[in-house]
Design goal:
Layout lengths: L1 H25 L3 H8 L5 E4 L7 H8 L7 E8 L8 E6 L6 H8 L4 E3 L2 H8 L17 E5 L7 E8 L2 E6 H8 L2 E3 L4
Organism: Ktedonosporobacter rubrisoli
Keywords: Lyase, Protein biosynthesis
Family: Belongs to the prolyl-tRNA editing family. YbaK/EbsC subfamily.
Length: 183
């Protein structure tokens, strides 16, 4: 009788195990699959997908907001046909648009609206990630504050998922230029 109970217990667990495997597979973002394929180490940080503000993400994760980077979309006003800009800056900083324009060699830049950012990237605000847009026509920039840390946290390409990886790896993978985008 005990053997039958053990077998029944195992059989009851198998669907749960398969379900968990399917869910784990679905939870991998394009950015994670890209990093896995290149054997680049990273740490996944999950949080409620209702949080869209990078400073709130830092608080939820118990991390220094200066180490959690948000990805913002900006547009060159003097060259509207040029590639949009993806600019990664610390959660506790704001882009200085004049500084950014100088750094990218533009007369002026402006922030894309939430609607424009989502339309241009195909990602929701709070989940916009340079790692998820690698083969798309964007000019990618990383604020120089990232150099203060060996690793930073950036969006994983989906609300509720951030990835922590080495700054040098992020620069190499995304082709990002290191600039001073904040005051």
């Amino acid at each position: 009788m005990q053997l039958i109970d053990e077998v029944a217990s195992i059989l009851r667990q198998k669907p749960t195990t398969q379900l968990e495997a399917v869910m784990a597979k679905e939870a991998r973002t394009m950015a994670m699959r890209f990093l896995d394929a290149r054997k680049i180490s990273y740490i996944v940080h999950r949080f409620p997908d209702t949080i869209r503000d990078a400073e709130q993400v830092a608080a939820e994760l118990g991390m220094d907001p200066a180490q959690v980077f948000k990805t913002l979309v900006a547009l060159r006003e003097d060259a509207p046909q040029s590639h949009p800009l993806l600019v990664m800056v610390p959660a506790n900083q704001h882009i200085d648009l004049r500084q950014l324009a100088r750094a990218v060699g533009a007369k002026s830049v402006r922030m894309a609206s939430h609607e424009q950012a989502e339309k241009l990237t195909g990602l929701k605000v709070g989940g916009i990630s340079a790692l998820a847009l690698l083969n798309r026509p964007f000019d990618v920039y990383l604020d120089e504050h990232a150099r203060a840390f060996p690793q930073i946290i950036v969006s994983g390409g989906q609300r509720g998922i951030d990835l922590q990886l080495a700054v040098d790896e992020l620069l190499k993978i995304t082709g990002a230029s290191l600039i001073q985008a904040t005051a």
